[in-house]
Design a protein that fits this description.
six-stranded mixed sheet; 222 residues; 5 helices
Length: 222
């Protein structure tokens, strides 16, 4: 039985009870989907991907170093989440939606890293990627450039016209040090940005409104 609110009508309460049943069913379905995701077999990564990254913090860009995929697992962690950031090499600014997502990731990155390694990767060269980070005020994200690598395309985030796509990939490292691919999801799901909806609270806040999320899209601040 749900709590009774001030001023609610019998009709409101009936519909709210129906909504609570639907929300419980949705929660159960999310748990089932999460279990299916965890049960996926992992696949070996047979390429030695090399990324470029700068120093911790975004105040300066030197020195720039090369980092291999296996070296992204920090502090003994055996899992790695890589966020695919949509930032075409020909652009001056990253995707506004990806930037909004990354604003949120920057705030929680220190908590995420308590359980798993975590980084943001883009096709853009490292200098432009870090300059964009400075404009956004990111301070906690590990930023990787796959500009000179096939990594983005190999995991489905680049189409045959070199167009970039946002998403997320998960990797695991075995006791032998070998890296395996566990899961990748693209943000674009059937023509809508719903594939990684659960990774950003903004849409869920809008979904609470009587008029819903509508056709609102993020934009870069002036």
């Amino acid at each position: 039985m749900c709590a009774q609110f001030v001023g609610e009508s019998d009709e409101y309460r009936r519909l709210r009870e129906e909504l609570l049943d639907a929300e419980s069913a949705l929660r159960d379905q999310r748990e089932r989907v999460a279990a299916l995701r965890r049960d996926l077999p992992t696949n070996p990564v047979d390429r030695d991907y090399v990324f470029r990254e700068g120093p911790v913090g975004i105040e300066k860009d030197d020195p720039i170093r090369e980092t291999r995929l296996a070296e992204l697992f920090e502090d003994g962690t055996q899992t790695l989440i890589l966020i695919h950031f949509m930032f075409d090499p020909g652009w001056e600014l990253g995707c506004p939606m990806c930037s909004m997502w990354a604003d949120g990731y920057d705030a929680v990155a220190k908590h995420v890293r308590q359980r798993t390694s975590f980084a943001v990767v883009a096709k853009q060269e490292i200098g432009k990627l870090r300059a964009h980070a400075r404009r956004r005020g990111w301070k906690n994200l590990r930023l990787l450039s796959a500009h000179d690598s096939s990594f983005i395309a190999d995991f489905g985030m680049e189409d045959d016209r070199s167009g970039q796509h946002p998403g997320a990939s998960v990797f695991v490292r075995g006791s032998d040090g070998a890296v395996r691919h566990a899961y990748t999801v693209e943000a674009m799901n059937r023509g809508e940005f719903r594939g990684v909806d659960l990774l950003s609270p903004v849409w869920h806040l809008f979904d609470l409104l009587p008029n819903g999320r509508g056709d609102w899209m993020p934009s870069h601040p002036n």
